[in-house]
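Q: What residues go here?
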């Protein structure tokens, strides 16, 4: 994982079944890896600043992301797409 990130890692989490590991950095990048093979599943540069939190859905098909850019998102891991939920005033 460290070789993929060019910036300091700010958050790491594993899926409930332990098959996937996600990491985010202080620049904006999120990587998802297969924990057994160590292969990259996807790279998601959708935020514009530091990744604050990552959380897999219970079936590990989606990844919730939050950032200091005051946006949250949901990554569809298989489709490699993300829906961004924006907030003009931040989240409470």
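A:
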């Amino acid at each position: 994982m460290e070789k993929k990130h060019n910036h300091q890692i700010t958050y790491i989490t594993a899926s409930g079944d332990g098959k996937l590991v996600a990491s985010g950095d202080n620049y904006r990048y999120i990587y998802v890896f297969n924990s057994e093979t160590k292969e990259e599943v996807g790279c998601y540069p959708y935020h514009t600043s530091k990744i604050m939190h990552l959380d897999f859905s219970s079936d590990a098909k989606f990844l919730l992301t939050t950032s200091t850019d005051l946006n949250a998102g949901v990554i569809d891991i298989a489709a490699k797409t993300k829906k961004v939920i924006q907030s003009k005033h931040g989240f409470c």
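A: Context that may help when evaluating the design: The radius of gyration is 12 Å. DSSP finds no helices and eight strands in the chain.
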